[in-house]
Amino acid sequence: MLKDELSKQIIESLKSGNSVRVSTLRLLASALHNEEIAKQSQLSNDDEVVIIKRQLKQREEAVEAYEKAGRIESAEKERAEGEILKEFLPEQIGESELSDIVNKTIEESGARSMSDFGKVMSVVMAKVKGQADGKLTSELVRAKLSAG
């Protein structure tokens, strides 16, 4: 389970003196714990991935905001935290493999236009289950449906 792995890594990071890693892992552990309390049940692996992605998205948005404000040092810290979070995500599907999945889904569903976008997206996202970026998937589906 992810919570056990996080506990081990927090201890290792404390011993090595890596304060950025310690704080990032503690925030992730806290987010997982809070979600578990809210659901009143143990989290599934899929739930954990969703929470990690949510945390990662927050870091990416913070990087953009800090860079716009000229706070490069803060942006770098957020970027480092994002890299730590990525370690806990499942292996991501490459763009070419994702493109193949999108093509196959469009063929199978008989989608012809942008009006079928939602139907195609829901099937593709179910197939890749957290192993592909939603934004990239959306761009690929949109491009294929617009071209076809």
TrEMBL record:
Pfam families, alphabetized: YqeY
InterPro entries reported in the protein's UniProt record: Asn/Gln_tRNA_amidoTrase-B-like, GatB_Yqey_C_2, YqeY/Aim41, YqeY/Aim41_N
GO molecular function ontology, one term from the record: carbon-nitrogen ligase activity, with glutamine as amido-N-donor
Record protein name field: Glutamyl-tRNA amidotransferase
Organism placement in taxonomy: Bacteria, Candidatus Blackburniibacteriota
